[in-house]
Amino acid sequence: MRFEQALGDLLDRLQANRYQPNLRSVLYDVSDEEKKRVLMTHSEKLALAFGLLTTSPGATVILVLAHQEKLDIM
User: Which parts pass through the membrane (predicted)?
Assistant: First the structure.
């Protein structure tokens, strides 16, 4: 599976579970659609997609966050 496909699958699963990104956490003066795009490709989501792609099915993927406070990760 390619990385882009793994990320797309992850984003599809998030949307299927009614995930709604917190648009207030994007401080740029851009449209809501652009804010959604930024949040849906945030580094933690990229790391999770990579972890899911490179581990065996059923394996535990642990993300260690560098930031103390996050407004919107998942």
Answer: 46-66
Nearest residue to 11 via CA among 40, 33, 36, 38:
40
Tokens matching residue 5: 């496909």
Report the pLDDT value the prediction gives residue 44, as an integer from 0 to 100: 80
| Amino acid, res. 36 | K
Rounded Cα–Cα distance for residues 53 and 59 (Å): 11
Domain membership of residue 17 as a residue range: 3-54
Average pLDDT, the chain: 82
pTM of the complete model = 0.59
Q: What is the CA radius of gyration of the chain?
A: 13
Number of domains in the chain: 1
In a domain, 49, yes or no: yes
